[in-house]
Structures are given as C-alpha cells and as structure tokens.
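ok new one. same drill as before - structure tokens go in, u give me an amino acid for every spot. 345 of them this time. try not to just spam alanines like last time pls lmao
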C-alpha cells in the first residue's frame, strides 16, 4: 500500500490504478471510499474481499459529473433530474433503475443501482481522470467504523488496498444520504450528509425508511453497522442525573461508570456530564451546538475512543432534526450488539 498526495502526478497515478483494476482509497466530502473501476468485475470482487463484506451489500457508484449519472442509471423517474439539479455534486446517493452493463456484483443482483456525484472537487477530478465510474463503499473493514482520514484507512485496511489518496480529513464526516427514487413514495433508506428537510423541499412526498414497519432491502438499513470495538450506549438529553444516582449507589457502580467515556452534545451537556464526576472522560461532540459539527466529528472521536483507555462509550442522542438524524442513526447502529441482524459496513 502506498499513500499518495493530491499533486497532479499523484492524481494521475491513482486514476491509472483505478482504471486498471487496482483498489484505491479516495477521499470524499462524506467519508473515505474504497474505490474500484465499476466496469471491472474482478476489481469489484476485490472490494468485497478487501472489506470482507458480504456480496449482498450493494456498492455506491460515483460519477465525475451530474450528467455522468446517465451512464449508470435511468434518470427518467419522477424527481431524479430535479434531485440531481438541486443537490449534486453533494452528499446524496440516488437509488434508480440500473443500466444493463452495471455488474450484478455492484448492485447485489438488484435491478436498481446507487449512484452519486461527490461534492469534493478532488474526488470528481480523480474519477474524471480515471475515465470510468468508480464503485466505492466506505473504506473500512466490514462492520467497523467508517474512515474520515487517510490514517483511519491505513489502520483498518493496510495492504488490502493498493493506494490511499490523502486528501485530509473529510469535511462532512458522515456518509451520504441514500434516497430511493424507485420507491413510491420516495424513501430515505439511510439518513446522511443531506438533511431530510432539504430533500423535502424538492421531493415533497419523501418518507424516512422506518425499520419498524418496512423490511430492509439493503444491509445499510439493518440495525447493526458502523460499530466501534467497545460497547456503546445511548442516553437521552437530560437523563444524566438518573445515571449518576444509580451508579453512585455502589462503589462498583461508580468505578464501572468511571471507566466509561461520555460523548455529549453541546457545552451545557458536556458541563453536566463532567460535573456529575462519574465519567472517566467527557468529550463534546459539538462545542458550537451545531449537529453538522457533531456529524463531522463523530467517527473520528469514536476511532479515538477505540484506542483510548476506557471500557465503554456512552453517547447522548441529538435532537431528531437536520443532520441530528444521521448522527443518531449511526449512534443507534453502533450501539446495536452483534446478533441475529449481523454487522455491515
Ligand atoms: P457504503 O458501503 O457505506 O457506501 O453503503 C452503501 C449503501 O448504499 C448500502 O449499504 C445500501 O444501504 C445502499 N445501497 C446501495 N445500492 C443500493 C440499492 N440498489 N438499493 C438500495 N440501497 C442501496
Ligand atoms: Mg459503509
């Protein structure tokens, strides 16, 4: 594995590698992707092998320009062109009927394909230089946290990837929103970097996938995903006094909580968590109280806590609005234990 920079020479090296079937981890504004030539089935198979990802979890195909989506998907469905015009390049993945050439391996045999034109100009330049659509799931091993830095990719995949293009930390830090336009009404399958509120302005009938009432069509919708290697528990805003009272009941309880790292949303919550004196460490997900900041910091903080001296992570849930939905979704999936639902990523 070789880490490349963003010089013209390095971009050309990465693009040639992509085109010729090698695996190249690429930065995007959401998370780092494990890129492969979408037209090369052997390269696609290598993506699944490198991630140890089961082939029933379809990949997102990335294109260099909004118009380029036409090569991959049928854009004639209601709202497809409107959504592309409004939100691309950007953190929105559209699920649409696939073109015939798209390999079944990229779509897990589905008649639909997930396609996105990424917001980061560097990613688009790379794809344009490669001259082929680039299939790229998140560049992490199956079931693990998504990478938001080149170092995360190097730590997680090592020599299972040929090149990593280091474009610095991802600006958004949370995966793209997946919007299935092949469903009526259109369905957000995965909340992400683009808010439901923003989509609703262009697709008024859009619904949020509800795991209680709809069975999953793709593994990104299954509960356990994006998991850190330590237990993660969620608490509601304002519920810390109850936790403190409970834990203070016994010396063992207090010691146990002290080996726990708390993630809080906003200064006030972080202050309250620190003041209750029960956590080994308290980190504020969003010192400015903006859920966008929490999304950008979430995976990076979880990566840090994996190696930090704590046995457990407790995180506060964010208000269910804007990017708070995407953060809560990732927190919920990270908090679900390995079980019947399996792990994905
Ligand atoms: P990731 O590997 O993190 O980039 O996630 C890709 C996710 O996109 C999958 O886990 C699915 O949730 C979603 N996806 C990809 N292709 C499709 C499809 N054809 N239909 C529905 N969801 C899809
Ligand atoms: Mg993933």
């Amino acid at each position: 594995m070789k880490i490349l920079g963003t010089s013209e020479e390095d971009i050309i090296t990465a693009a040639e590698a992509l085109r010729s079937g090698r695996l190249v981890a690429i930065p995007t504004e959401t998370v780092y992707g494990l890129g492969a030539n979408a037209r090369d089935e052997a390269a696609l198979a290598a993506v699944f092998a490198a991630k140890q990802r089961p082939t029933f979890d379809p990949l997102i195909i990335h294109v260099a320009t909004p118009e380029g989506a036409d090569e991959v998907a049928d854009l004639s469905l209601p709202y497809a062109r409107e959504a592309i015009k409004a939100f691309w390049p950007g953190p929105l993945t559209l699920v649409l009927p696939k073109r015939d050439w798209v390999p079944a391996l990229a779509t897990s045999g589905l008649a639909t394909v997930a396609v996105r034109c990424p917001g980061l100009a560097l990613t688009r330049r790379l794809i344009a230089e490669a001259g082929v659509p680039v299939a790229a799931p998140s560049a992490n091993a199956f079931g693990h946290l998504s990478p938001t830095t080149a170092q995360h990719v190097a730590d997680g995949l090592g020599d299972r990837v040929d090149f990593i293009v280091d474009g610095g930390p991802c600006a958004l830090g949370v995966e793209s929103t997946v919007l299935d336009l092949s469903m009526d009404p259109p369905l957000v399958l995965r909340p992400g970097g683009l808010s439901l509120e923003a989509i609703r302005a262009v697709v008024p009938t859009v619904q949020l996938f509800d795991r209680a009432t709809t069975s999953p069509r793709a593994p990104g919708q299954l509960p356990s995903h994006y998991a850190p290697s330590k237990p993660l528990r969620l608490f509601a805003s304002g519920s810390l006094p109850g936790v403190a009272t409970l834990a203070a009941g016994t010396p063992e309880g207090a010691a146990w909580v002290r080996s726990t790292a708390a993630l809080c949303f906003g200064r006030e919550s972080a202050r309250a968590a620190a003041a209750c004196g029960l956590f080994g460490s308290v980190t504020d997900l969003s010192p400015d109280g903006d859920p966008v900041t929490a999304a950008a910091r979430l995976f990076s903080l979880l990566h840090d806590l994996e190696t930090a001296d704590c046995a457990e992570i407790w995180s506060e849930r964010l208000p269910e609005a804007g990017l708070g939905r995407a953060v809560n979704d990732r927190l919920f999936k990270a908090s679900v234990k390995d079980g019947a639902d399996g792990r994905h990523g």
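Confidence is low (pLDDT under 50) at residues 339-345. and btw The pocket of adenosine monophosphate (ligand 1) is lined by residues 57-58, 60, 95, 107, 110, 112-114, 137-138, 175, 178, 180, 189-190, 217-221 (CB under 6 Å).
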